[in-house]
TrEMBL record:
This is DUF7872 domain-containing protein. Residues 1-44 are annotated as: Disordered. InterPro entries: DUF7872 (IPR057194). Residues 237-447 form the DUF7872 domain. Residues 7-44 have a biased composition (Polar residues).
Amino acid sequence: MPAFSRLASSESQLPRSSRLSDSASVTQLHQSHQSQPNELTPDQWQEKQLDKYLRTYPNGTTLSLSEYAEQLPRPFPFHCGIGQFEQCQIPPYAYESLRQSEDWWIVTSTINWNYYTNFLSMALKSSGKLAQSIVHHMLHDLVYEFNPETSLGVIKEMDLIRILLYPIEHGGNRDPTVSDATQIPDWLAAISPLASNAHSSMDLSQAQVAVNSAKNKRSLSSASGMPPTNVPLILYNSSQPVETNLRELNSQMQHLLAKSVENKVNSPISLDTGIYGAISGGRFVGPKIDTPRLTSNADDIMRLIGVSAILNHENAMVVIKKSSCSLYRNKMKSHGPDRLQFCASDSSLIEIVKVRENTVIKDIYNAHLIESKYGFKTQFLASEALRCDQAIRQAHPGHVPENSDDGPYDVCTFQLPICNLQDEYLQQLLQDGKSIVEVCREDVGLAI
């Protein structure tokens, strides 16, 4: 297998987003409103058996969050939700009474959860705004004779979800003592299950699994206008322009997030659908809670997914051929700028090509912009496609692992079929007159 260098150019060598010093933890944000009596930890949550306390709270199967606060020894108004910060606080007159009881932990964890979900909402809004600009320019750059009204489905719904969600650092509690028997990420626990008028209970974790584990994105198009069966989150209209769908998907996600938070606040506190489902296990006990935000390389992630989506729409694949690549270097220099090819370190020839029926087409419209404008060399694209392919083959069903090399991109931000023709048997088929497309389709097993 050829060895690929990791990155395209200095412009694309952006580190995986770290937790920046100006991105305060939820607890630090909370401290600006009121000092805390002690440092809360998930270990203390477990020691005090607060899951049991909240699950068996008197009348907990009927009390909403605000009703719960109103029946405390020192009642106070407590209204949480998207856009509500000041209303979701402990008033000074109730502070001393509350800090002496287990309810202190319930209330402060809920305040942390409220901050977290509000920052998640802001990150999603920022992602949508950035994606609109990037997708608009990519469509005009890379789609031949692009017309919003006729170039429908150039970027499929699953890729639009990736573009919106993948650049978001979800944050969460970095304390390893947080109890989570389900292994659901904090950001999912914070807002699941989602709900809308059409679907009374929609679990976003299903959508996350489907987004991360889709092996063949080409099969996920919704020509009928119905969402993929495993992704109840979105309502996608395949007859609408790509940019319209992107805007509406982002709007739906924000609406569903707000609705989910509202439902948790209004549902009985002891039920999974209520605040128990969000804060159980000490998920939102401080002080190590990071708020969601866009990654520092969010624009690169969006462009990488966009390039992958557009190439998939063109029925593209990565072809690896064993050859004396050095013999072709001068010939490759004479080719036009719109071919995506390079010689690997083992002298194999790697190309990204389009497939039309049984023919390979090497010229790709405005392919030179992929490197000159977006900063992604063909060598990097092939490396990412190969890494994604290997990760999917090795992963457990329904799970795609994170990078193991601390690189700047998550696995499967760039996904194309790979046809490795270096096997001697496959080389013999080519020598016997079988076309590259036929070998890749019939013998390698690609759905091209």
